[in-house]
Design a protein that fits this description.
The complex is a heterodimer. Chain A has strands spanning 3-5, 10-14, 19-21, 24-26, 32-38, 44-50, 56-58, 64-68, 73-78, 87-94, 102-104, 108-113. By secondary structure, chain A is mostly beta strands. In chain A, a hairpin with a 5-residue loop joins strand 5 and strand 6. Chain B is built from no helices and eleven strands. The chains are: A mainly beta, B mainly beta. The A-B interface holds A 32, 34, 36, 41-46, 49, 51, 90, 94-96, 98-107 and B 4, 6, 31-33, 42-43, 45, 48-50, 55-56, 58, 90, 92, 94, 97-100, 102-108, 110.
Amino acid sequence: AQSVAQPEDQVNVAEGNPLTVKCTYSVSGNPYLFWYVQYPNRGLQFLLKYITGDNLVKGSYGFEAEFNKSQTSFHLKKPSALVSDSALYFCAVRDWRNAGKSTFGDGTTLTVKP
Amino acid sequence: KAGVTQTPRYLIKTRGQQVTLSCSPISGHRSVSWYQQTPGQGLQFLFEYFSETQRNKGNFPGRFSGRQFSNSRSEMNVSTLELGDSALYLCASSLAGGQADTQYFGPGTRLTVL
C-alpha cells in the first residue's frame, strides 16, 4: 500500500531564510509525487509534481522539490521564505493501481516570521 | 478556465439527517475524486468517479455514496449523519484520474453536524 510521511508537524523559519519541508514515501512501482498548499478555510492548491526525469522539480511561487529515490524522499524547498508562505503543506503520492486516489501525509504547518 | 466549484460552502445539519454536496469539475476534466478532511484523520479518500462510473472507493461506510453525471459534475450524499461526519469535504478533478494527472481541488464544503 502507498503511504506518505511528513515527519515534522511544524517548521518555523525567518523571512528571507531558506526553507525545507520534508516528505518520505512508500509505493509499489514508480512514484508519482505531489506537493499541495492549503490556506485557512481553503482547498488545496497544487504546487508541483514529480513524474519522471530531473530529480529537481520547479513549481509555483518559487518552490522546488528534490526527488531522491534511494532515500525515498521528496522534500519541498524554497531559497528565500516569505511571510505569505505561511500555510499548511501536504505531500501526496499516487499509485498506478488506484485510479483517482492520492494518499496524503498528515501535513506540515510552515510559519515564516518577519 | 474556471476552477473546481463546490456548493454549498457551508452546511449545518443535525444527527440523523442526510446531506448532498455538489462538485463541478474543471471543463474537460472527466475524473472527480472526493476527500474528507478532519483534524484527527487528515485527508481521507472517499471515492473517485470517471465517465459516470465509480472506479475506486475508500474505507468509508455505505452511508457515504456518490454519483457522476454525463457532464462530469458529481454529487456525494451522506445519509444518517453522525457527529463524526463533521468535516471539510473536498472535491478534486483531473483529466482522467491517471497517476500522473494533477488533481485540482475545490474550496470545499464545511459540514457541521450537531
